[in-house]
Amino acid sequence: GSWKKGCPVSLERLNYVQFGYHGYDGNIAQGALVTADVVAPNILEIFRKFFKNKIKVEKPGGGKVGGTGMFICRKITGESGFSLHSYGTALDLSYYRNPYVGEYKHIKSSGGAFATGVIITPDSPLTFLNRNQKIEGFNEVHVDYIRSQGLSEWGGHWLNRTDYMHFQSSPFFSYLFPLIDYDSGRTLLTLEKNADRILHKFSIQSTEIAKWVLMVQLYPKDFAQMFVKNIAQFDALGEDKFYQMLYTKLQAQASK
């Protein structure tokens, strides 16, 4: 799960963030997470607030029962593309108390028959599937605050599967930040707080992302500021026309 050649973010764009935390064993301990540099200040702020307010956290780095983690270079569960954990822009917070719940399909070798069922995080008691209970450690109470820190999407709101532990920045932002410098990435991250509704409207199909990647590669220094400056026009234009407008403006600025 650690960084290796072929991961979608370079080793230089990862930070090691250290913080104190209150554990479920009643002790105060030192924890650390590996995270993308652009979200590292926000992650530190989240855990500082948790510590100040004595909010308990499962052990960063994981353990036999429960844990909290961020960067791990791996594919999406059940899919072929990289998880946003591979970019360091996704947080799994206290996963023992906040399980992943997904559909499991097993295709039999003969007859093409299949069985469906539900998979949950190993070792998580079934009682934690009932989210109407008032149990310490449920992530629902943290959603608004963590969203305000740039991890604008919570897996507990997903429809095709439910991932109560999981918070992430938008895929659109996560795919692009490794191509721009830190300051530009921080500029773009402001939209995760202020315009996440729009960022999640951008297509993340490979063909669509490719054109944005090309634009960033052509104009790495100017892209983020131009994007943020003009994002208010997205709803009126739609993605294709917004792209063309932005491309034209960047070309014009570069020719000055």
Architecture overview:
This protein is an alpha+beta fold and 256 residues long. It has 2 domains: 11-169, no CATH class; 175-254, no CATH class. Helix content is 33%, strand content 17%. The chain has helices at 40-52, 143-148, 171-176, 182-194, 196-199, 206-218, 223-230, 234-254, and strands spanning 14-22, 28-36, 90-92, 100-107, 114-120, 153-154, 162-163, 166-168. Strand 1 (14-22) and strand 2 (28-36) form a beta hairpin. Helix 4 (182-194) runs parallel beside helix 7 (223-230) and helix 7 packs antiparallel against helix 8 (234-254). The longest helix is centred in the C-terminal third of the chain and has 21 residues, at 234-254. The radius of gyration is 20 Å and the shape is globular. The chain starts with 13 loop residues before the first strand and ends with a helix. The mean pLDDT is 88. This is Peptidase M15C domain-containing protein. GO terms for molecular function: peptidase activity.
